[in-house]
Amino acid sequence: MIPGFANRRRFSDxxxxxxxxLAISSEEDDGRIYRSYAEMLRxxxxxxxxxxxxxxxxxxxxxxxxxxxxQIRFGNVIPLIRREHVSGFYARKPVWLTSNLGxxxxxxxxxxxxxxxxRFYLAAAGRxxxxxxxKLLGDLASAEGSHVERADQLIERNLVPDxxxxxxxxxxxxxxxxxxQPGLAGLMDGSVSTLAPIxxxxxxxxxxxxxxxxxxxxxxxxxxxMGFTEAASDDGAISGRGSPIKRGIAAGVxxxxxxxxxxxxxxxxxxxxxxxxxxxxxxVELWAIAWIQNRYMQTPFLRAAFQVxxxxxxxxxxxxxxxxG
Length: 325
Known about the structure:
Layout: E1 9-10, H1 16-41, H2 46-74, E2 86-87, H3 102-125, H4 131-158, H5 166-193, H6 195-205, H7 208-233, H8 244-260, H9 271-297, H10 301-324
Parallel strand pairs: 1-2
Helix pairs in contact: 1-2, 1-3, 2-4, 3-4, 5-7, 5-8, 5-9, 5-10, 6-7, 6-10, 7-8, 9-10
């Protein structure tokens, strides 16, 4: 279960006032992010910094227009509602995650921000019956779409000619959002969460058949749980993460495979042979997870390895100690 998910509201359940309030807070956040990008780029890429300064100013204009409309329709008191309060709503990465990743990474984040905002305004415009509100939200969707083009110009102005085309970059982003992220979360959950029950059973019984059955049940059960949780957590309409069915399949299958990897060796009748092979499989699984995080999620390899390998080792140790006791 995703922490805090039960306390979030679905976008479809928001009132028109709450949609406007959500748009206002989102514009405020995006303006701050663009100003932070501008400051990071100002020394080495002053032209690009100026672009982000301009984009931040436009976000301020959008916010002002939204506030003016809210005052006309609903008064001066704006409800406190932010992105994290809405289930499936797009999230923004902290600026510090991109501060050391260069202009291309910042440009990709900016482009994704504008695509997210454009989808939000189009969805919001489709839910309002007020003509003035619908017009403003449609205008803002068009403005956010034009920002995507401005963000795309940064790579042409400052990076080498063989940079990825926008189509390739968009396809890669969608692949990561729809398949890699949920699949990686599932692989991590399946590989790590099943370590304790499998190895506790192994050392407690030293019976390979029983250990295999426990591992099989834990893996399949975890896969079903993760698959349904991922599919139900976000319909993808606003976040742009793609089909919930595809994400659920990716999370469920990879969770199951993560657990089965170190359960299958216990089909071998000899206990110690099976256990040694299972340990080797666990080692490979954890390093594979660290590599995927580095390759697709831009997590520094040493940090990813430390988090995954150390965490997995602790869970393995807990299972072995409990089983041996």
